[in-house]
Amino acid sequence: MKLSRSRADRAEGAPATGAEGGPAGEAALGATPGTGLRGHRLIWLVAGIAVLSLLAGIIVSRLVVSPAQAAADAQAPAAGLITVPVEKKVIANDVTLRGDVKYDDAVQVKVETADLGGPAVVTGQVPALGTELGQTSIALEVSGRPVIVLPGELPAYRTLRVGVSGPDVAQLKAALAAVGIDPGKADSNVYDAATATAVDKLYANVGYPSPSSDDEARAGVEAAAEGVKGAEESLAAARVTLSSSRGGATDVEKLEADNAVRAAERALTAAQAGTPPDPAAEPGTAPQPGDVAGAQDALTLARAQRAALDKPKDVAAETAAVTAAQRALEDARKALTEARSETLTALPASEVLFLSSLPRRVDEVLVERGATVSGPVMAVSGATLVIEASAGSSDAELLAPGAKATFVLPDDSEGTATVTSVEARKAEAEGGESKADATKGSRFTVSLAPDALTPEQITLLQGSNVRLTIPVSSTAGEVLAVPVAALTAGPGGESRVEVLRGEARAKSADKEKDRATDLVPVTTGLAAGGFVEIVSSDEPLEPGDKVVVGR
After folding, report:
1. Bridge partner list, 519
2. Phi (first) and psi of residue 148, to 5 degrees
3. CA 483, CA 546: separation in Å to the nearest integer?
4. Which CA distances in Å does 213 have to 123, 137, 164, 220?
5. I need a surface site. Which of 101, 251, 386, 472 has the fewest CB within 10 A?
6. How many CA atoms lie within 13 A of 290 on its CB side?
7. Cα–Cα dist 386/388, whole Å
8. Closest listed residue to residue 525, CA positions, set 536, 535, 538
9. Sign of torsion, CA 43 45 47 53?
10. Are 159 and 349 in contact (CB under 8 A)?
């Protein structure tokens, strides 16, 4: 047949490559070129889908929990012992506080300027921040005059001059003595000439002239001196008058009186004899012959006049004049003393600044040169760095002066400090609250003095806030210790611990569930930080032994 022949011819004329390759193979499979590559891709796709399906099945199987498994998982675990090992450690009870680092006793400084009589202008000596003010330092210069620093608690409030007295004078004398100047009577609170002299020395030491007296005071001294001179002259005249009045009759006056008595006696004798009177007698004085009575009277008068010359004279008026002159002189001298005291050196209130606990450090300057003083001029504090912390009553009861504290310095090194005081800040009772309740809830100020610090550390610390750790009790070294939770109370109130029993201590909690325990009575010591010291025990305890703290 034609068709068969044609196929045979093709079969004979074309090469045969087999079913897997060549044109004959492709024709036999009924495929076109490229069909083999697409077949491989299909195989990989099917394999990937199979892997993903497997993974999804695994995940779903883990998420899906059967009811039996859920019930099993919901059951409580079997009870067991919770144990911890006995430790050997140092137990310390600490008080932890926050403290501010600053210089002690900070105050604002005012200068009394009421006695200046004019504007209080700052003319110089303005201190720089950090300046240290000590005894006799010049804090400031106001209106050309110094403000001298002296030790004392009481601020200056008046000018001190000769004649005034009081506690401020006593403070000044103590301050002068403290800087090495003799104030005179140190136990007296009167400002006298010796004190004025001491103040002169004070001004000389600081390099300023003493305050000068005014013209009115000097004029008063001159007037008082003239008054003393006049009183002295009046007294001298009064004394001369008194002296002359006390002198009595002269010898001549007495002799004349004696002669008059003798003449009167002769006249009486002649009258009695009837003889003529003495021709030498003064006319009218001699009695006539036979006038015995007249002669007798004349004799009596002569004798009386003679006796009067021997009696002292009445000088009461002259004596009173002398007394008055003496009193006037005393008054004049007192006035002179007072006038002179006005010219002695005084200490104006505007030229002295009393500060306690010297030296002091200038923390803030509130005025500048050329400004007028109208309030505080600077803020100063003590030159000693302190740490001030606040503590509750429970912590304050554990602290006492002398306790040591540690803190971390800004350079990460450890610093130490000593407690200097623990003072209560009492709160006022409000709303009917009793004083005892108010004090119970009050806080305490704890002051500490840092130990030796370098200038750089002081600069870094100032104004910072540090964490203070103050040990209030501690064991002498490492001791046996267990958690406080391991202690139980026995029937007699004794402390005891429950120790896991057995020669081989199991390390696994699961193995410890069924192990027996012993209750061991113990004597405890210091407790702090959740641990308690085991001082002794009825049975030996060693580090690593396990004690029960829970079940």
Report:
1. 498
2. -90, 130
3. 11
4. 22, 25, 17, 11
5. 251
6. 0
7. 6
8. 535
9. negative
10. yes
105 with 381: CB under 8 angstroms?
yes
Helix (H, G, I), strand (E, B) or coil at 93: strand
Tell me the pLDDT tens digit for each residue of 302-342: 888 888 877 777 778 888 988 998 999 899 888 887 777 77
Beta bridge partners of 259: none
For residues 480 and 91, the answer to whether their CB atoms sit within 8 Å is no
| Whether the Cβ atoms of residue 291 and residue 274 lie closer than 8 Å to each other | no
484 and 532 in contact (C-beta within 8 Å)?
A: yes
130-164 core/surface letters (b: 16 or more CB in 10 A; e: else): ebebeebbbbbbbbebbbbbbbbeebbeebbbbeb
Q: Which of 156-170, 219-233, 368-382 has the lowest mean pLDDT?
A: 219-233
Which residues share a beta bridge with 353? 149
Q: How many helices (H) and strands (E) does the chain have?
A: 14, 22
Q: How many CB atoms lie within 10 A of CB 446?
A: 26
Question: pLDDT, tens digit, for every residue of 516-526?
Answer: 888 999 999 88
Strands (E), 79-177: 82-85, 87-89, 92-103, 107-109, 122-124, 132-133, 138-142, 145-151
405, 470 Cβ separation under 8 angstroms: yes
pLDDT of residue 20: 40
Which is higher by pLDDT, 74 or 410? 410
Q: At which residue do the structure tokens 């110094």 appear?
A: 146
Q: Tokens 């000389």 — which residue?
A: 204
Question: What does the buried/exposed string (b/e) look like for 372-390 if buried means 16 or more CB atoms within 10 Å of the residue's CB?
Answer: ebeeebbbbbbbebbbebe
Contact criterion met (CB below 8 Å) for 360 and 106: no
Please enumerate, as own/partner, the contacts of 365-372 that have beta carbons within 8 Å and a separation of 24 or more.
365/126, 365/127, 365/128, 365/129, 366/108, 367/122, 367/126, 367/140, 368/122, 368/126, 369/122, 369/123, 369/124, 369/126, 370/121, 370/122, 370/123, 371/121, 371/122, 372/119, 372/120, 372/121, 372/122
530-533: long-range pairs with CB below 8 Å, 24+: 530/483, 530/484, 530/485, 531/87, 531/89, 531/91, 531/481, 531/482, 531/483, 531/484, 532/91, 532/481, 532/482, 532/483, 532/484, 532/487, 533/91, 533/475, 533/479, 533/480, 533/481
Using alpha carbons only, how large is the chain's radius of gyration in Å?
Answer: 62
Q: Could you tell me the pLDDT band of residue 280, with boundaries at 50, 70 and 90? A: low
> Tokens at residue 460, please?
């870094």
Q: Could you tell me the maximum CA-CA distance found in the chain, to the nearest angstrom?
A: 256
